[in-house]
Amino acid sequence: MNYDTAKFGPSGHDETFTIESNTLTLQMPKWLRNKGLDLFEYSFGRGVRISSQTAEAIGDEADKYNIEMSVHAPYFINFASVEQDKADNSITYLTSSLKALKHFHGSRCVFHTGAEGKQPRVEAFARAKDNFMRALSVINELGLSDLIVCPETMGKQAQIGTVEEVIELCQLAQNVYPCVDFGHVNSLYQGALKTSEDFQRIIDKLFDGLGEEKTKNMHVHFSKIQFGAKGEIRHLTFEDTVYGPEFEPFCEVIIKNNLTPHILSESAGTQSIDAKSMQETYFKFQQ
Questions:
Q1: N or C: fewer beta carbons within 10 Å in the chain?
Q2: How many CA atoms lie within 13 A of 137 on its CB side?
Q3: Is the pLDDT of residue 1 over 70?
Q4: What angle do the packed helices 163-170 and 196-216 form, to 10 degrees?
Q5: b vs e for 102-127, b when ≥16 Cβ sit within 10 Å of the residue's Cβ?
Q6: Could you tell me if 12 and 41 are in contact, meaning their C-beta atoms sit under 8 angstroms apart?
Q7: Count of helices and strands (H, E) across the chain
Q8: Phi/psi of residue 8, each to 5°?
């Protein structure tokens, strides 16, 4: 599944979409194409609440305007839970997201793996890994293994999802690709992503652990995020000059390594504006 260029778009509706008199996701593909963007990520954060007919209609529009759809699975997912019913429900949340993704004619589903709770980190991750393996078996049984599932790097200390943990999860099956949220990584490590070398170290870990295909075509969330002692606090916009990370050093790494990721902006209300800013920077760096 190789691509010839990086692609950019927003995660969710932003303020500009509404200001320009749009109300329906059905309008999003044409709106994004008119702005020259490539991607849209639909969030099921509070649950998979969309009819197959509506999803199909949106998928048809996405095809018409050459917009690639992805989804974010519900935030309720916790594969590290010690409660079996919550782990089982997490599998259902993920497979329900994938079924909807099919109707969107998309190929990628991002999810949060879980959190430690009161468990030691090692035990929590082992439990998360075991339950995710069960999920992958169910996905295969349901005939959904042609879709890509993307465990996301997380921004808080108590959450499962360091770069190393995501790499280990992505080694479990061919259809598991990393979602690297660089704002989360930066928050977790207290502003560690400043130079292109800082970003390169992450890419090197991905190349070493996952190889060329999954690293070059990884899923990316990029936004500036305020952080505190325990990590992520809240998403910001590209106007922020305090927290970062900045996109330019990562863009250098994209070009240097010939990466072709899907890059989604999760800025606070300016997703499409900041996605376009990243795209323009990318085009400038290519020249």
A1: C
A2: 7
A3: no
A4: 10
A5: bbbbbbbbbbbbbbbeebeeeebbeb
A6: yes
A7: 10, 12
A8: -135, 150
